[in-house]
Give the backbone structure.
Amino acid sequence: MAVMVFSGDWLKNWEKGGRSDFVQLCRNLSENQGYNDVTFRDIQQALYELACHVIKGNLRQEQAASALSDVMELRDDMSSILADVFCVLDIETSCTEEKSKRDHFTQLVLACLCLVSDTVLKERLDPETLESLGLVKQSQQFNQKSVKIKTKLFYKQQKFNLLREENEGYGKLFTELGQDLSGNLTSVLILENIKSLIGCFNLDPNRVLDIILEVYECRPEHDDFFVPLIESYMCMCELQTLCHILGFKFKFYQEPNGETPSSLYRVAAILLQNNLIELDDLYVHLLPLDTNILEQHKREIVEAKQIARKLTLVVLSADKPDEKEKEKDKEEEKNEKPPDNQKLGLLEALLKIGDWDHAQCIMDQIPPFYATSHKPIALALCQLIHIITEPLYRRVGVPKGAKGTVILSLRNERAPKPVETFEDLRKEVFSMLCYLGPHLWHDPILFAKVVRIGKAFMKEHSSDGSKPDDKERTESLVSCFLSIADQVLLPSLTLMDSNACMSEELWGMLKAFPYQYRYRLYGQWKNETYNSHPLLVKVKAQTIDRAKYIMKRLTKENVKPSGRQIGKLSHSNPTILFDYILSQIQKYDNLIIPVVDSLKYLTSLNYDILAYCIIEALANPEKERMKHDDTTISTWLQSLASFCGAIFRKYPIELTGLLQYVANQLKAGKSFDLLILKEVVQKMAGIEITEEMTTEQLEAMTGGEQLKAEGGYFGQIRNTKKSSQRLKDALLDHDLALPLCLLMAQQRNGVIFQESGEKHLKLVGKLYDQCHDTLVQFGGFLASNLSTEDYIKRVPSIDVLCNQFHTPHDAAFFLSRPMYAHHISSKYDELKKAEKGNKQQQKVHKYINACELVMAPVHDAVVSLHPAKVWDDISPQFYATFWSLSMYDLAVPNPSYDREVNKLKIQMKAIDDNQEMPLNKKKKEKERCTALQDKLQEEEKKQMEHAHRVLQRLKLEKDNWLLAKSTKNETITKFLQLCIFPRCIFSAIDAVYCAKFVELVHELKTPNFSTLLCYDRVFSDIIYTVASCTENEASRYGRFLCNMLETVTRWHSDRTLYDKECGNYPGFLTILRASGFDGGNKADQLDYENFRHVVHKWHYKLTKASVHCLETGEYVHIRNILIVLTKVLPWYPKVLNLGQALERRVHKICQEEKEKRPDLYALATGYSGQLKSRKPYMVPENEFHHKDPPARSATPATVQNGPGTIAQPSAATTNAAKAEEGTNEESDKLKEKSQNVIKVTNKAANALPKVMASNGTNSITSSKVTKEKEEKEKSGKEKDKDKKEKTTPAVPPEAKATAKEVKEKSKEERMNKDEKIRETKEKTPKAEKEKIRKDEKTAKEDKSRLTSSSTEAKLHSEKEKEKEPPKERDALKEAKSKESHTSTKGEKAVSAGSLKSPVPRSESSESDREQKRRKLDSHSSPSHSTTVKDGLGDHKESSAKHHSPHHTNHSTGTQSKSKEREMDKKVEKFRDRSREREKKEDKERKERKRDHSNNERESIQESKRRKDENGTGGSGKRSKSASPVDSPRSSEKEKNKSSKSASGKDRDKNDSIKLEKIEKSSTTSKKESRHDKGEKKEKREGGGLKDDKKHHKSSEKHR
């Protein structure tokens, strides 16, 4: 309403224009807007504004009265409007304290008396105001008169109310209403008669209406008559009369124990439906009050919770009587019935007549489900839904062949209309069901109808394909059905009494929904629904109580009866039951098997709910996935995983949700739950992943699928076809196969770098192994179950896997390998069909073509996986071939096939002998065995043909495999780094494959492949590889080493076999020539005896690495090396002293770790026991390889490429590496060898020409000794060394002259030595002193015969074994030349490459390192006793190579005299040079004496550094405790003790000789360094003596 405000201009210019403006405004309002309410209010406002200005004094009364007189003509009711304004102003002014305003108001009314009649004013104004205006004389009298008039009008009785007051009139009324209404009587005629009776007999109209209602109650079938009658009658009464009469009737029954008749509820409901009364008006007359209903509802919830709590508590017997008394009191209270709930009775009546609108209004006023918790209301509502849904159900929901009972619709036109389409359900049916809630359980038939309608809708919805126009409508209907399932169907199922049929019906609808929707429903049902109603709270508690009862009694023996009880309970409350069962399984894993067996009575819905409950239990955030020690996975998770595998295999449960859960966990970087996937695949597909496989099982795993199933697994794999098919379908239907593979492959590194955090290293290793094992298992499942098309369609190419998905290369090839095999097989089949030909050659040719077609893109793709430099050494074809093949392609496990066939034959024989077995079962079993036998034989034949084709293919490819553009050492490095090491730890079969592949490459005589280098690199230093492995990887690495050792041992054991398989093979060439040239003399090959030396060196290396790992104290090192040693036990250790060394170390571990780390103690104890059992099979060292060297041939001729024959194992590998660059380590060793050569020569000179006992004593001929001594005279440096050692027993006459000269020179040098060296001389045993005196005599006599005896020695050495090359002199020459170089030109270092370190090092770094390690490298294992010739051979070889540009490849039969003379001249020249150098060295010795103490400290520091670097320096390095028998710690202690020992220095000399021999046979030789730092070496000899002493004790133990 617009607010009119008089402007100042109107008031100021009232006479001129203000009055006219006001009148015009009123006229406009009257003319333009008519007589509606808005106009009325606007005019009223205008008049009010005008009157207010008069009261305020802004306008005179006369002016206002004249304006109002003009306005009065505008409307007929204007006087009434003005009277209303005066009424309002009267109240306002009477309340104000300003008398002036009241006076102004009175004057205004008096001025307007002519405009408003007195009667109207008397109605509107206050009596006191009327008195002041003079309209009434006295206000009091006026009030009294009005009261009397009202009393007379409203309270004076004029009609008869009681029946006895007017018997005749009411009697005739009953007659009229009770007559037969079937004729032509209508309500209009009866109403006229009633009116007549009222008028004639003065009947009270309200009483007549009450009687009409009473008669209607008694005649409910005549709705069509009474409703119009009452409706017509109400026209004569007030609107509230009928409602008041009904309220009075309800009030009558509200007494205690009162019961309201249903007829009254029905009459009230019909009157409400026909809108004759209002619900709000009637509702206030009904009891109980809404607040009372709410309190009662809350009280019921509390009572239900108390009951639930009591069921979970253990009640003591003393408390039970009190509780019974309380229960009796409650029952007595319940016996006093409260008055009827009239609201619920009215609601029931409304539902029965179909008045849904009013019924819904009543249910909204009370708590949810309170009304429907009363069975009559629930049944009434169910019946109403029956009636409404009947047409739709008949059309879409009735099963074929079913008839059903037809339900008639209501005759009431005002009732809801029946639904014909799904869309109509949204109007009222869904809301009715929601109000009904869990109480649909009262009507199972309606439950089934609703479910079938929902099933029909989902079927139609899925078949329509959701047209774009109807998409929104359909989605809303889907949402409605989901809500009904959540709020009505599942809770109702809870309250039903074990109705399995309803459960299956409901599953028919729910299975049409995706599992995400279903699981959401189950979650709501389990966690929220049970708390929404008191009845559900009770049922939940009762279910838990019953579940406890059953689970307490469940055993393997009573699975069937307990299973029936579980099934019965699960039909109604599966979520609560399964939640409790899973909680028990997590605590007691021995319940898994009986629970799985007892769940066979579940319905399909229950199985689906079980899957959800398992996932919910797995995802429980309150559960810790690790044990308290943080090193192992929790037992509850392991139990659940095991239960998952068993339950999903046995029963048809949908797997998608579980698989998606695992994928989601992997996306989140959590790998614990991979345990579930591992168990599921193992149980459902029968694919086991275990590191404890026997050799027979592992062999069987290299065969076909049938052989794997029969002999490759621990358990019998039976009946996995259906379960594996279900698993495959679940993966393919939801595209989870490849994502799971990629996530697992990526998560392997994620476990280490992202997930580990502060986790224990042991746990990280377990998680890594679990992730890797599951990947291998899952990939194996996909490879064996997916078709070729499915596999190729889902797995991308190798470059996409590695570059785009960042999959590790080993995992990428693992996934792609079956694809290549499938693809090649299909191409091969296509080529066979295209060109028919059965010849074997044609088949092989077609197979090779198929391989080229399939693998050519792969060769191109792998180029992007590594830098371009890699492909300089190995070709992409070789790389792809290695990674694409498997053990199935390389070898046929014929023994496994034979073994399984024999088992089947034995089984068939046992079946025949079994007399108790029925004949039909016998026949079936025999047929099964026969069919299986045929399958195995056919599979074996197929694999043999396949392996033959693969071998032909490899023979064709081998020439292009290894390019060797850099060096063969680099080639082996790349092969090991990129191929062997990554794959040998991938799986147990891959470990076998890697060993087999190396052997195959050797057998194929692959160009540029050095088998010797490859094996040497594998065995030389395993510390880093072992330390970086997880537990399972260590097991696989041990299998790989075991297979490699098996091959080596096989060659080592038989000379014939070695000559056959290695003799003429390029892999055993010791001189590696230019790339592509693998020919050569027989002399280029490593002979059998030297190969045995090499094998011994490898065994020693393995022992050294094992001891190092065992002594580190690190958990991972110890655990892994024990695992590796256990795996290689069949082939290592074979040498007795090495085995004893290991045994002592392992025994020490057992003692130390018994209390600290029990798992290490268990491993060590197990290995120790197995090692002791292998002790009888160990052999002494001299039986493992011949330590006595064969005689050398004559002076070598000169050839272009290097020495032609092999002296000993170190020489063999030295020659093999001479094609490459030598390492610093070997350079250091060579320098020490050249310095220590006099030691060896003296020892050799003292030896008699006879074979000693097995303690390692060498037999050397006298002529050989003479020749060696002649060469020693050429080196002053060696003479100095000889004086220190002073080990010269009696020698043959030919060697005495040389010995004397050597000793005389050594005496002069020894005069300048420090006190320790003099003590060494003084404390030499007497026997040795006598021998020294004899040597001095004989040396003087035979000095003239030195040349002739030297020639005889050379001729005699030619008759010795040809395997020992004449290289001792060369070594001396080279050593002396090195000394001359160092004295004139300074120190130089030659950068070199080694087997372990293919990358050349800088000269400066090599120089530093050789200074640090020279002394340490000179010490080798005392147990490694070899011949003197080994040491000399190395030095002569290097010396000859340094001084002469050419060497011979084989020994010549005779030596010409001219060559002997030349050699003598060279010897004399070397002597002269050595004498000149001795003078310079005398000065240096004086300085060295002062620095002696510093050198001792330096040696200690160097030993510590060497100890730190022990595992990082390559294959040739030695620690201070080089022997595996002595630890670095113990060797330091022995060093301190050795200075106090009186005889230690003597033993030092002997020990150094032993060390020198061991060094020659155990080190991997390379190209020797040509420059020696002789002076620096000499400075450290004083400290070196102490280092030598510590080895003597250990050597004594071995001797």
Remarks:
- The mean pLDDT is 74.
- The CA atoms of residues 1275 and 1376 lie 6 Å apart.
- The longest helix spans residues 919-957.
- The radius of gyration is 56 Å.
